[in-house]
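Sample intake sheet
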Amino acid sequence: MKDQLGRLLDITQIPKRIISLVPSQTELLCTLGLTDSIVGITKFCVHPEGLKTEKKIVGGTKNVHFNKIADLKPDIILCNKEENTKEMVFALEKIAPVHISNVITLEDTYQLILQYGEIFNRTMQASHLVNSIQYKKGELNIDNRIKKVVYLIWKDPWMAVGGNTFINSMLELNNCDNVFKNSTDRYPVLTLEMLKELDIDIVLLSSEPYPFKEKHISDLIKLLNTNTILVNGEYFSWYGSRLLNAFDYFKTIRWLNN
């Protein structure tokens, strides 16, 4: 068995004790019926609700308590190329096999789900989930007009989403032309002066990782004189089972459908 970086995993039996260091992957495990097998999660694993009160918190996505992880005696640790660091992975590999995901497109998501199905003996559930997500995607009927957008994820400094990201793939599904899709940086740092010079139809403010609120909308509209809306970042950035609801959510976004 290989992970999404093509790394061979030394797994001889179905893992029974799982540590997940990626929130969207934690939710995916629960959807696949593996909640009881999860022994450790991050402080950002907020879905499903209440899971954080049941499982051991081993840190965040960039910094973890290796001693806590070792004490849990995991059979496998689940990471992500973007969310977790190389240094973490090297240290974690001394504790247990580490599976690393690398999700940029929907196809990558499908592959990850099916890999988990094989690793954890949930092939039927994984196949059903992939089919359900594909069906939901097929129901998406977005206005064919291309909208030029910037998707902001941070303030002070301002940061946007570039190309080669899962968020950019979700924007493309919504017929959005990300003005920073060709940036050499996956998450370019900007100034408001730079944004003023761009021909943008819509500014999207993500609810995460920076907690943009409604109050930020009026401020940007005044500064940029451009349609600005707040969007639920989970539906643009959480791959896995959150996609079951993402496509219905996309239909509700006012400026994406007008």
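Comment: The domain at 18-137 is CATH 3.40.50.1980 (Rossmann fold). The mean pLDDT is 95.
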